[in-house]
Amino acid sequence: QVQLVESGGGLVQAGGSLRLSCAASGRTLSSYWMGWFRQAAGKERKFVAAIRWSSTYYADSVKGRFTISRDNSKNTVYLEMNSLKPEDTAVYYCATYPPNSAFTANYRRPQIWDYWGQGTQVTVSS
Questions:
Q1: What is the pLDDT of residues 21-75, one digit of tens each?
Q2: The dihedral of CA 67, 75, 35, 94: what is its sign?
Q3: Do 21 and 92 touch, CB atoms closer than 8 A?
Q4: Which of 16, 23, 60, 85 is surrounded by the most beta carbons within 10 Å?
């Protein structure tokens, strides 16, 4: 059983920074794709970033502002968020990609990812 626990969310002013953490248990993250998604109130859950080894993907809306990274010794994935905007306000979730599934062009679809954390709220005030 995989468990993911996000932390690091909060309230920040526009232009500020936050670092989210996702600690995993039940699966060693180093060999698997890990991702961050976000869901604003009343909207669909959307892809933010993904990482495996040194390969990373980002949504266009966060490129150049957000950085995904991992610490395999801590089995933790991070999302460093800089130059935050009010439109970044959402609940942020980390997720794992099914280990036996090919990482295809559909990776942005949340339905494909298998385990999810409970989410952490990020609120950016203008």
A1: 999 998 777 778 999 999 999 999 999 999 998 899 999 999 999 999 999 899 9
A2: negative
A3: no
A4: 23
Give the DSSP letter of residue 87: G
Write out the two tokens for 47: 């892809």
CA 12 vs CA 59, 80, 123: distances in Å? 21, 13, 6
Q: Please state, rounded to an integer, the average pLDDT across all residues of the chain.
A: 94
Other Cβ atoms closer than 10 A to 5: 14
- Polymer length in residues for the chain: 126
Asked whether residue 104 carries a pLDDT value surpassing 90, the answer given is: no
Q: Which two tokens stand for residue 91?
A: 């609940």
Residue 16 CA to residue 1 CA, distance in Å, equals: 36
